[in-house]
Structure formats: structure tokens, C-alpha cells
Amino acid sequence: MLSPAIRLEGNxxxxxxxxxxQSGLAGxxxxxxxxxxxxxxxxxxxxxxxxxxxxxxxxxxxxxxxxKPSWWFKVISGSVRICKLLADGRRHISEFCFSGxxxxxxxxxxxxxxxxxxxxxxxxxxxxxxxxxxxxxxxVVARFLRDVTLRDLASAHSRTLLLARMTAHERxxxxxxxxxxxxxxxxxxxxxxxxxDIADYLGLTVETVCRTLSMFRRxxxxxxPNPHRIxxxxxxxxxxxxxx
Length: 244
What we know:
The chain is an alpha+beta fold and about 240 residues long.
């Protein structure tokens, strides 16, 4: 079928959930007009007819590695991590999915990654077979899911750069900027994931993530009122680090 939609073209993340890609599946949103004008809203309404809302508690497994990819999902609220346990016991997180993000569009015969709720989450679950039937009869839906796949490809290239070439400081800075951009576009965000989650996503140790965040805080770039909240104080400085 389709490969997982990982992140937005040209960035670390997909942004089906930001103001450019919000859908009606989670209720009225700020980006409604943008989506309606592009035809994506019609595609999402068509998909909603075959979907079902499912709730998961914090750390619940949505699907396991090795499961058959009979379903794909869209986050309505909360957040989800896509992860894999490596042979040596380490965990690799390939992406975080927030409201509006799609995941689980695997093209293989079984799941290569697991999906887990980071916090309490509500997702829309779509059957793969029914989705393929809708795609055959509705070109708008087919184009929408094609675009998801193309963003996946571009995002995979960006992630290769992140893990292969960026320093620890650049990785953490880029991560923070992208989360700020995706979640609220304000100067304050709530981070549902733990520092361990962030480390497993960025390919760093948790100690390195904590030291880097502490350095950013000492330099007046961010404030950290509590472990799950970050205030952006100097965006220009953070961008300079991420683009170094």
C-alpha cells in the first residue's frame, strides 16, 4: 500500500496537524479554509466514513512490531511514538505523531515498528482494505494519500541528515524548533514525551539531552518551568544553533 508518513517535506516532521494540514476529523480547526480549498478536507471526510475512533491510555500499545498492517491511523488528540526495540536492547523512536498526523501506512507484510501512546490519546482507525477501495473510486483520497507518501520520502531524507551530520546541540535545537512549529506556533509548548523518549528519537543519550537543554536554559534561549513545558525565549539563537 503506502509507506508510513513520517514528517513534513523539508523538515524533520510531517505536519498534517498544523495550520496548513488540519482536518475536520478532530472538529473545527484554524486551518479549515486552507484544507477545504486544497481538496484535502473532502478527502478526509470521505475517509472518516470508514474510520472509527479508539482511545488509548499513556504507554498503551496501539500495534506491535510484527503485526499485520490491517489498519492505519490518524491522531485526533494526544501523541504517539513509533518505535523499535533493537537487538542490543536499545530503543529507536522513528517519529512522534501529534494531532492531525497519520501513521501506520505500512507497505510491508508485517509491522516493522510498534506504535505506542505517549500520553492519553484518541486516534481514528482506518481499515486498509476499505481504504484501498475508497482510493480506487475517489481520486481526491488517492491524491491525499499520495501526498502523505511523498512527504514521507522527503522527510526521510531530512532525518538522514539529522542523524548522520548534526551535532548533539544541533539535533536538540532542531527538535525544539520543529515541535514549537508543529504544536502551537507560540512561545510555550507542552512536551508530552520524556527526556528518554527525546534521546531515543535523536540518537543521543538522555544525559546529553539533559545537558544540552540545561545549556540552552543557562544561555537564556529557553526556560524550563517543569520537565514537560518549555518556553522559547530566543528563537533566533535556537535557529542559529540548528542551522550551524
